[in-house]
Amino acid sequence: MDEKLRQAQKMEAIGTLAGGIAHDFNNILFPLLGYPEMLKQELPADSPLLRHVEAIVTSALRAKDLVQQILTFSRQGDQEVKPIKLQPIVKEALKLLRSSIPTTIDFQKNIDPDCGIVVADPTQIHQIVMNLATNAYHAMEETGGRLKVTLQQTWLESDQALFPELTPGEYALLTVADTGSGIEKNILDKIFDPYFTTKKTGKGTGLGLSIVQGIVKSCNGDIHIYSEPGKGTEIHVYLPIMDQKSDEIKTDRNMPIQGGTENILLVDDEEAIVDMEKQVLEGIGYRVTIRTGSVEALETFKADPGSFDLIITDMTMPDMTGTELSGEIKKIRPDIPVILCTGFSYQVNEEKSRALGIEGYIMKPVIIKEIAATIRKVLDGKN
C-alpha cells in the first residue's frame, strides 16, 4: 500500500511538472508556428523556399503533438477521439524510440500502407506503441534480440473464441513481438493489473499495460498476449476499422482560411504572441486592438464597449486570469463573445470554459486555419 501511495504521489508530481512545461512550451511554439505559416502564404507557389518553410511548420506541429503526448502520459490532456490513419502515428512513435534502442537489438517494422481508418485519440495510439515497444526493448536490454512491429488489416470471424466480445468485421492489428525472456504462465493473467510489474526498480511503474488495455477497450478493441519463457512475447492489439474510405475524411486543415472584417480585442501578456496573432488576423481582414495586460484590456473595453465584436484572451496572466477578464467584460456587455486561448491551464478546459459562458476555446499553438475557423464559428453563432 505504501508503494502504491508513493507511486501515486510520483505520478501527481510528474503531472504538475508536465502541465508547467506544456504551458511554457506551447507559448514558445505559437509564434514558431505562426510566422512560417504567414511566410508560406506570401511565397509564390514555385518558390524554392516553400519546401523549407513547410518543413518548419511540420516540425512545429510535431513539437505540438509531443507536448500533448506528455500531457496524456501525465493524465492532464484532453482526449481527441476522431477517425485517424494509424500508419503515420506508428511510424512517428518508432522513429522517436529508435534513438534509444541499442544496436544489439534488431529493430524491424512492417507497416501496411493500406490498413484502414480507426476511431481513436492519436496521442493515445502513440502512447500504446511507445509503451509496448519500450516493454519489448526492456525484455532484451541485457541479451539483445529482435523487436518487430507490424501493422496490418485482418478479419475477425463471428465464431472466434479468442475475443468473444468483439463483433465480426475488419480490424487493424498492431503486433509488437520480441525475442526476450518471455513471461511465466503463472503471472500472465496478472500482466494487466495496475501496479503489477516484473521489471526491476526504476524500470517501470506497473501502470503501462493497464493503461494500454484501458485505451484499447475504450476504442471497442481488445488486446491479447502470447508468451513463452525463454523465447519471447507477442502482443496483439485489435482496433475496429471504420466503414469509410480514407479519402472521405476531411480535416479542418483542408478547408480554406475564413476571414472577416470585425473588430477584435486581443489580450496576451506575451508580446511575441500578440504581435504574431495581430499580423495573422489583420492578414485575413480583421481589425485588431492588442493589449498585453488583462487590467489594461478591461480599461480599454470599458472606454468603448460597443466598438468590439470579439474578445480573444490568454488564460494565464498577472493580476487577472482570462476567465476573470471574461467575467468582468460580460458584466458590461453580456452579448460580447469571448474566445479563451491557453497553452495549458489546470483551472480551465473546454468544458469548464463553456460552463463559464465563454463561447470559444483554443489550445496553443494553433495553425492559422484553425484559429480563423474558431473565430468565424463564434462570430457567426453570435449573429
Characterization of this structure:
The chain has 383 residues and is an alpha/beta fold. The protein has two domains: 79-249, Heat Shock Protein 90, CATH 3.30.565.10; 252-382, Rossmann fold. 43% of the residues lie in helices and 20% in strands. The protein is built from eleven helices and twelve strands. The chain has helices at residues 2-42, 50-73, 86-98, 122-139, 185-188, 208-218, 271-283, 294-303, 322-332, 350-355, 368-382; strands at 82-85, 105-111, 117-120, 145-156, 169-178, 222-228, 232-240, 263-267, 287-291, 310-314, 338-342, 360-363. Strands 2-4-5-7-6 form a five-stranded mixed β-sheet. Strands 9-8-10-11-12 form a five-stranded parallel β-sheet, with helices on both faces. Helix 3 crosses helix 4. It is elongated.
Distance between the termini: 57 Å
Q: Characterize the biggest β-sheet.
A: 5 strands, mixed
The structure class reads alpha/beta
Mean pLDDT: 83
CATH class value of the largest domain: Alpha Beta
**CATH fold naming of the largest domain:** Heat Shock Protein 90
CATH architecture tag of the largest domain: 2-Layer Sandwich
Describe the structure using short key phrases:
20% strand, 2 domains, 5-stranded parallel β-sheet, elongated, 383 residues, alpha/beta, Heat Shock Protein 90, Rossmann fold, 5-stranded mixed β-sheet
Structure described in brief:
The chain is of the alpha/beta class and 383 residues long. It has 11 helices and 12 strands. The strands form 3 sheets. It has a 5-stranded mixed β-sheet. Strands 9-8-10-11-12 form a 5-stranded parallel β-sheet, sandwiched between helices. A two-stranded antiparallel ribbon has the order 1-3.
